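Okay, any thoughts on this one?
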Amino acid sequence: MIVTQSQTNFICPITQLEMKKPVKNKVCGHTYEEEAIVRMIESKHRRKKKACCPKIGCGHADVRMCDLVQDEALRRAIESHNKKRYRHSE
């Protein structure tokens, strides 16, 4: 299987799975699966710690819920990619 660069952008850095509800961090620009990043932030905050961006190499050390916005363009791109992939497999 060949994974293109654009397909790697569909993968959540936390779950390592294709995102279904991507959210973008307004501060550092990285994107995650909504449920995964929310769980990570809540878990860190319960332990009175800051949640760091899980993207390797990112120095953003305080990801907050208010930094996250729905990434509709990426969600549509993933859906479009999956429809094309489904059509090719028939």
